[in-house]
Amino acid sequence: MGTIVNLDLLKSTAAQFQPAAGAVALQVEPYGSGNINDTFLVWADAGSKQRFILQRINQKVFPYPRKIMENLRTMTEHIALRAVVEKAPVTVSRRWELPAVVPTQAGQDYVVDANGDFWRAITFIENARTLPKVRDAQHAGEAGYALGTFQRLISDLDVSRLHDTLPGFHIMPRYLQHYDRVLETHGADLSVPEIRYGVDSVAQRRAWATILQDESAAGRLQERPIHGDPKIDNIMIDDETGLAVSVIDLDTVKPGLVQYDIGDCLRSCCNPLGEDTHEMDKVRFELDLCETILKGYLPEVREFYSDADYAYVYESVRVLAFEMGLRFFMDYLEGDVYFKVRYPEHNLMRALVQFRLMEHIEAQELEVRTMVQSLARTRTGAH
Ligand code: GN1
Ligand code: MG
Description:
Blueprint (H helix, E strand, L loop, with lengths): L6 H10 L10 E4 L7 E6 L7 E7 L7 H22 L14 E2 L8 E2 L5 E6 L4 E2 L7 H18 L17 H15 L6 H13 L5 H7 L6 E3 L8 E4 L5 E4 L6 E3 L1 H12 L17 H15 L5 H5 L1 H22 L11 H18 L1 H16 L3
Antiparallel strand pairs: 1-2, 2-3, 3-6, 4-6, 5-6, 7-9, 8-11, 9-10
Bound molecules: 2-acetamido-2-deoxy-1-O-phosphono-alpha-D-glucopyranose and magnesium ion.
């Protein structure tokens, strides 16, 4: 995935989103650590404090960037309306700010440059930051709260009003079909122990791994608006209070199963070593963090969670660790066509981390199920 950007083009693109007409002397610098899009922080005018985020959408991954912008608008309006109807802020006594569209001076939500690249700008959330790994229990609890709050705020948005910005995203049967094609085309060198481990990990679980789609097709799980990518680095934490203020990276807000969200949040936030560790043998799924996250998350979602939603929390986290392992692994085999990599074996290493994590999740199945059952009971007051 190319990150090469012509600096003049970058500045002239950024200038089109300038909030103040005639402002010049922009400062633009790369920002964040996303695996797909290219992200920049733009100072709206040299010396001024006004800043915004500028992003070039990777159109190899996101084929319909206009739909992303329409979803963002739909979602922002829905949440704003909710606050008006309820005559109250959307969160109780705490700061909460979601990124919003910054239009161009011409009133457009995006710019397509001379190369056909798609650019959009969104607001920068001040005095807050994201972290690539879970820092402590408070951080984990805040990630759970933030995801639950976000899901709650969009839970009553009619799901048919959201476009599918990324067809096939989280859909295991599609990933497995793709994996089979990649194996056929590129092969896999089974004499390399890491590759053999990857191939075996997939082979042992592929029949089971479509469970969320199977349950959805059978009508036991329902499509709703979801975030799609609530990993730890997409949760923004207030610099002073340590409380979550936002969930960012809203490109995958679309119809889906809430299971993808809670599964992704747990597989990301309960892994203290993070996605990029080389200490394979130390990769762990921390039950204490899992409990803290669920205690932050479940109270927020109780109004719309069904019994089946509670029942599938364990499968969700196991599936999402498997899904991410599979996606990193097949991208490695295919030659790194999807995720940005910083070194040749990067996707292989990422895959192994997820497969190890998955094994540790599997080893703690009973504990996770018991934990969810007990937290779900607390909700209804039953004993
Ligand atoms: C990608 O680009 P980024 O870092 O927000 C990916 C997610 C993965 C994540 C793993 C659209 O997200 O599904 O969980 O990498 N996003 C897409 O770090 O594929
Ligand atoms: Mg993302």
